[in-house]
Amino acid sequence: MVFKLYQKNKILHQTMNDLFQQSQHNNELTFVENKLNPHLFKNILNSIQSHAYQSYYTIDKLANVLDYVLYETNNQFVTPYHEMEFAKNFIEINKIKLSPLFDLKSKFKFDENDALLHQKVLAPLICIDLIENAFKHADIQSEHSFISIQMELSHGFFILTVSNKISQKPPLLKPHSGIGGQSLETRLQHLYFNKFKLERVVQDEIFNAYLKIDLRNGTH
Amino acid sequence: MAKYRNSVFYMLMIALFGFIMYWVGNQGKFLEQKNSSDIVTQAVTSEGYFQDFLNSLQHNLEHPLAVLLIQIITIVLVARFFGWIFKKIGQPSVIGEIIAGIALGPSFFGSYFPELSAALFPVESLGNLEFLSQIGLILFMFVVGMELDLKVIKSKANDAIVISHLSIIIPFTLGMVLAYSIFTQFAPPGVEFLSFALFLGIAMSITAFPVLARIVQERDIHKTKLGTVVITAAAADDITAWCILAAVIAIVKAGSFISSLYVIALAIIYVLLMLYMVRPFLKRVADSSSNGKNLTKSLVAIFLITLIISAYATEVIGIHALFGAFMTGAIMPDNMRFRQAFIEKVEDVALTLFLPLFFVYTGLRTEMGLINDAYLWKITGLIILVAVVGKFIGSAFAAKFVGQSWKDSLTIGALMNTRGLMELVVLNIGFDLGVLNGEVFAMMVIMALVTTFMTGPSIDIINKIFKSSDEVIEQVSYKNKFKILFSFANQAKGKKLLLLSNALSKKQINNSSVTALLVAPSDEIFGFEDNYEEEHLDPVIEECQALNQKVNTMFKVSSDVETEIINVANNGDYDLLLVDAGESIFEGTLLGRLLGFTTQIVNPDRILNKVMRKEGLFENTPFNETTHQITLHSKIPTGILIDKNLEKIDTIIIPIFTKDDIFLIEYAQKFIHNNDSQVIIIDVLHQVNHNFMIKELIRSIEQVKPNHISVIDPKDISPEIFSQQDLMVVSIESWKKLIETRSIWLKNIPSVLIFKS
Predict the structure, then answer these.
(1) Bridge-partner residues for B553, per DSSP?
(2) Are the beta carbons of A53 and B510 separated by less than 8 Å?
(3) Positive or negative, the Cα torsion across B82, B84, B90, B95?
(4) Which chain B residues contact residue A46 at CB under 8 A?
(5) Is A209 on the interface with B (CB under 8 A)?
(6) Across all residues in chain B, what is the average pLDDT?
(7) Candidate from B472, B481, B703 with C-beta closest to A199
(8) What is the DSSP string of B590-651?
(9) Which of A127, B233, B652, B704 is deepest in the core (most CB within 10 A)?
(10) Chain A closest CA to B163's CA: distance in Å?
(11) Please, are residues A160 and A130 in contact by the beta-carbon 8 Å criterion?
């Protein structure tokens, strides 16, 4: 009898104990759950914040570009300085496609004392085709991928060089392609007659574009 | 007293022995009288003492040795002068030296100043000149042989060999056809047609490897694909041509093809002997004697004796001593360093002293006057035409066939058409053998000159015509690369800077270039001679191979090291200049010397000591002052490394003071991307938190590469954290601040890279 009572008591004790442990475990669980949720939110918030900032940043640059397109490009010619500022903005906009660790190099070499820097001698948006192409066709996911853009004004020559890694795969057929390059050439031909040089070459999976315009002695 | 003792002793002894000599001289006169009266003393025939002197002077002037010496002086001076002129107009100096030879010969000097010419080059002196020039040629051919790298030919074989052999067989055939058409008028009497034809053939198919190699080097194409192809082809050409020439000489000497077979058999035995007996022997000698750096006298003696024996053997066999010399050069031990050292030893004397003698010797035999009517000039034109068509077009055609581009093919053609002095060697042999007469010899000399002369301009023209996309690619891809230049003065620091460059660029294989710049102070280089460059650059190059990093090297000598570095950096379109805080900038600079800032003050250890307050800290540390110089003048981003046993760059700490320090994040980006480094950013003045730009930049990196970048508040760190990092990256302004405030961080500081944007 006593033994039975003891037995019962022991079982009761056991159950109590189990219950207690369970509740404690539950407590812990809810605690973790409670902690987990805000952390998840924090992470997501981080990403959203980052995106929001980048969106804002990109929109800001886009606004600059819009200004340029609205107020400057109506003229037949713009100053190399403005075109350079435009190119900078344009590159910033395109950065949104890229990882922050992507190997993007842009370099602008303009001599501050160059008389041509603030003269309206350059056709507006002349650099857009080549730069845009680099971002469009760069194989940004491959390991050694890069885009490199250099713009310079020296001794009366405007020189733009763009190179980027491209995919080995043959290009897919797209409804709107293959017009840009041709139209750039025609435009240059029209504006600068034979005082320019445009080369586009692919070598070892690297696309190289080279544009050189002779800005001396005015334009045609 | 002791001071004068020596002087007194000296004077006494002079006086004593002077008197004894005088006395013996006087006593000797009696012996004369006693002996006999038929000793005719000079005094008897003389017409006074001064005339005596004049006579003996005249006699001395005509003495063969005196004549030879004055000839050498004239020749070397004139050759150098002409060589210099041609160098100035962008031609290889060889042409100038050849022309100098012709000018000194009967064609010009001889016909306008016949007496002077006869006095300077009397007929009986030509023998001496010939032998000396022959010895010069033997040494020269030895050098030519050594400059050939047989291994290259073996490894790069196919294309180059095809080009090379086709470029011999085509002109050779054309030469024989030419011989057929001019044999009756121009062959010396008694010469067989076969000999004449073979000689014209070989004369048409020669390429001057040394001249070609020099042109290729001067035009900076020796490292391109085209350069290797053409050098290999020319080398193969050289070997083939000399073997054919040996056979031709054998045939000419033996009189008929059949009887020449004995000579050729002997020659083959000779070649086999050289290849399988002498070559391993020489290799063992070179290996056992040293590490290939220092050539001892006995070593040089062994090689020179081998050379002479080989030349002697081939002369006796009947295939000309020059072939033996060339062969010896070609089988020298493969170690290029060893060869280089040997070449340098022999080349100077052979090229500057002996070779001009050969040119003049050739010039003395070239009589332009023989070509005195229009018909002969026409034939000369024909010879030139055949030579150019055969060699130029022949090799261009071959190159095009094996798949070179048009531009490269034509360039190869133009280069292979260079005949230079090798042609003269062949012509002289032909003249000696009596196969060529004076007229043909003169015509062929003109041909050699014209074909050599046209090489440079024709390459220019080809470049102009094909100002091709190749160059554009090179230009574009070079411009668009991220170009790091690091300058070092001692190899240990060079390795550290290389490690840094590697960490900043290793994943951008196609899009970065690293250049190592070594500027030697010019007063130092005199003592060290030529191996200064190797000594300093080689360990760094080895390190490059270990890191698998491609690197360009640049070596300069300057009296003003600091300015030189700055000039290279500013003019070279580099994106980043890395220097070591120690020797490379400051040591030996003019400024340093003027102000007394030599190593004792501007020494990285001292700077660190100052920084760590083991030594007193001044308001203006010399480091600040001198760094100011470099940062003031370098127009490109510059990084200055204070090295404290930098071995790896896995963890980096970057203190950010102001928002201007944002450019450091760019370098952090590069370190993370290329080197997988982990970066801790210390937000010293709470700028990061308040500046969206920086904050977002860091956050975006963190998103794509977690656990590689973090921002820490300075309150949360202990100073010890610095000593656990591999590198601290800091902007120069912040560095100044750190030093001014005598920050406690400096105590545990790791290696520091100070950036100026």
Answers:
(1) B516
(2) no
(3) positive
(4) 699, 703
(5) yes
(6) 79
(7) B472
(8) HHHHHHT-STTTS-HHHHHHHHTTSS---SS-HHHHHHHHHHHH--S-EEEEE-SS----SE
(9) B233
(10) 25
(11) yes
Residues 6+ apart with CB under 8 A from A151: A84, A87, A106, A107, A108, A109, A110, A127, A158, A159, A160, A161
Given a contact cutoff of 8 angstroms between Cβ atoms, the answer to whether B396 and B156 are in contact is: no
Share of chain B above pLDDT 70, in %: 84
CB contact under 8 A, A165 and B508: no
Burial B97-129 (b: 16+ CB within 10 A, else e): bbbbbbbbbbbbbbeeeeeebeebbeeebeebb
Contacts of A143 in chain B (CB under 8 A): 507
A175 at B interface, C-beta within 8 A: no
User: For testing the chain A interface, which of B405, B475, B480 should be mutated: the one with the most A CBs within 10 Å?
Assistant: B480
Cα dist from B95 to B49, B101, B715, whole Å: 49, 10, 76
Looking at the DSSP bridge assignments, the partners of residue B484 are: B514, B576
**Contact check, Cβ <8 Å, A53/B692:** yes
Instruction: Give pTM, 2 decimals.
Output: 0.55
Helices in B46-91 by DSSP H: which ranges? Answer: 49-62, 64-88
Q: How many CB pairs under 8 A join A and B?
A: 83
- For residues B332 and B312, what is the distance between their CA atoms, to the nearest angstrom? 17
Cβ atoms B693, B664 nearer than 8 A: no
CA nearest neighbour of B736 among B623, B587, B631, B634: B623
| Contact yes or no for A165/A133 (Cβ under 8 A) | no
The two structure tokens encoding residue B326: 């060339």
- A105 CB within 8 Å of a chain B CB: yes
Q: Measure Cα distances from B168 to B299, B394, B451 in Å.
A: 37, 8, 15
**pLDDT tens readout for residues B439-485:** 888 888 889 989 888 888 888 888 877 765 556 666 666 777 888 88
At position B431, the amino acid (one-letter code) is F
pLDDT in tens, B3-16: 788 899 999 999 99
- Find the radius of gyration of the CA atoms of chain B: 35
| Two tokens, residue B205 | 């198919």
> Tell me, what's the pLDDT at B21?
93
Helix, strand and coil content of chain B, in percent to the nearest 5, comes to 70, 10, 20
Rounded CA Rg of chain A: 31
C-alpha closest to that of A87 among A189, A158, A193: A158
Tokens of B52: 């005596």
Of all helices (H) and strands (E), which one includes residue B267? helix B257-273
**Whole-complex ipTM:** 0.77
Provide the terminal-to-terminal Cα distance of chain A, rounded to the nearest Å. Answer: 119
- According to DSSP, residue B370 is labeled G
Q: Is B507–A144 a contact, with Cβ atoms under 8 angstroms apart? A: yes
Kindly report the backbone phi and psi dihedral angles of residue B659, in degrees, each rounded to the nearest multiple of 5, phi listed first. -75, -15
The answer on pLDDT for B151 being more than 70 is: no
**Contact of B626 with B610, CB cutoff 8 Å:** no
